[in-house]
Design goal:
Elements (H helix, E strand, L loop, with lengths): L8 H15 L33 E3 L19 E3 L19 E3 L19 E3 L7 H10 L4 E3 L6
Parallel strand pairs: 1-2, 2-3, 3-4, 4-5
Length: about 160
């Protein structure tokens, strides 16, 4: 396929920063096709997201992602949507101390214990994650200040 633009990630980000300068940060939104390119050199997969060091909201739902290693260094992210991917290992999430809202809905999470230490979370969405009732009960107990949304469970 032909790239949409003859630009790379850095040129794209310069354009985004200029748009923010002109329009203001409250009026700029952009996206990318993280699991299939999208026509921009340098955004062929989620590894490009590691360059978004000032990003506060990262919406990666439905992108066939299986590993989150590339984004766990993004300490400015406060809202992270990883819903409906293929993520089973969430052991690196506790390094994201800025997270306040985390959506893991629809991922085959194998072990919820990394979430138990994330007491700074305010919202957690884990419906359809395959967690056992015991794991979910542990989350409710450990994350008392967090609003947890999970289908079919009442604490």
């Amino acid at each position: 396929t032909e790239p949409m633009w003859a630009a790379d990630f850095e040129a794209y980000m310069k354009m985004v920063l200029r748009a923010i300068e002109v329009g203001g940060v409250d009026h700029i939104c952009f996206g990318a096709d993280w699991d299939g390119g999208g026509g921009l050199k340098g955004i062929e997969d989620i590894s490009a997201a590691s360059k978004l060091t000032a990003c506060t909201t990262l919406l990666l739902g439905g992108n066939s992602i299986s590993s989150i290693a590339a984004i766990t260094g993004l300490t400015s992210v406060s809202t992270l949507d990883l819903s409906n991917n293929y993520i089973s290992d969430i052991s690196q999430l506790p390094s994201m101390k800025g997270l306040r809202s985390l959506n893991l809905k629809g991922n085959p999470i194998s072990d919820a214990s990394p979430l138990l230490t994330m007491t700074w979370l305010k919202e957690l969405y884990i419906s359809g994650s395959g967690l056992s009732k015991d794991q979910i009960a542990s989350l409710y107990s450990a994350l008392r200040g967090c609003s947890i949304t999970v289908d079919g469970y009442t604490p």
